[in-house]
Amino acid sequence: MLLELEKVDCFYGDLQVVKQVSLHLKAGEVLCLLGRNGAGKTTLLKSIMGQVRRRGSIRLSGQPIENLSAHEIPKFGVGYVPQGRRLFSELTVRENLSIGEMARVKGQANLKDIFTLFPVLEKRLDQMSGTLSGGEQQMLAMARALCIGPKVLMLDEPTEGLMPQMIANIREVIVRLKQQGVGILLVEQRVEAVLSVADRIAFIENGLLQETVDRQQLEENDASLKKYIGI
Fold first, then answer.
1. DSSP label of 128
2. CB-facing half-sphere around the CA of 101: CA atoms within 13 A
3. Greatest alpha-carbon span in the chain
4. Which tens digits make up the pLDDT trace of 122-162?
5. CA 162/CA 4 separation, integer angstroms
6. CA of 12: how far to CAs of 3, 17, 25, 113, in Å?
7. Confidence grade of residue 108 (pLDDT, cut at 50, 70, 90)
8. In the CATH hierarchy, which fold is given to the domain comprising 3-228?
9. CA of 3: how far to CAs of 17, 57, 78, 169, 215, in Å?
10. Helix boundaries (H) for 39-163
11. What's the rounded mean pLDDT across residues 29-35?
């Protein structure tokens, strides 16, 4: 198993936000976390990245990583694209990618492969990232995370604020990464935007993992969608 969480609790100070969540992610699989705002989805991603206090077991390819600090996690092969992208807007596309490369354990990122996924970025290398369109900024945020050569890529609301064509482009990239064996943990609110690329869907409510279903099962019976996110 690529990524395994067992009985993970997450805290902001003394406030417990996520409770006893256990889930797993296989190589080349897309697991989508769905739930209403405030359910604990983003907090769970932050806990994997060591950005919030957590308790429980988190293993990557069988190796415990729950005691690692936030700056160490990427070196073990976990890429993270947070909600809002969080680029360095006053730096160029090239400089943002260079920052992503800093987390690599060895070698340089294969930018040629990254530009195959995001060809528009190759044309924007010397452009300030803050002047890119919203879709291009999302591409850059994903490309920066891919610079580490991740085994696991975590995406938090990657389609937020994007036009339909750009959403389709993001879906295409996710499918191609999946084919390359990257495990993808995806938080999203727009069910229709990501359901077609998901293998399994985990529903989180009030910090608890309520159920995990296969996409086909959900397409045949949408009762879980209506129950946990009101669709």
1. B
2. 12
3. 48
4. 999 999 999 999 889 999 999 999 999 899 999 999 988 88
5. 31
6. 23, 7, 25, 38
7. low
8. Rossmann fold (3.40.50)
9. 21, 11, 10, 26, 20
10. 41-48, 93-101, 111-117, 119-122, 134-146
11. 95
Query: Are 175 and 183 spatial neighbours (Cβ–Cβ below 8 Å)?
Result: no
Within 113-199, strands assigned E span 152-156, 183-187
SS3 label, residue 20: strand
CB count within 10 Å of CB 48 equals 23
Asked whether 201 and 216 are in contact (CB, 8 A), the reply is no
The residue to which tokens 């999302």 are assigned? 138
pTM for the model:
0.92
| Six token digits for residue 108 | 């340089």
Beta carbons of 200 and 215 less than 8 angstroms apart: yes
Q: Which tokens go with 29?
A: 């699989």
Cα(42)–Cα(128) distance, rounded to whole angstroms?
28
CA dist 98 to 127, 154, 229, Å?
Answer: 14, 20, 38
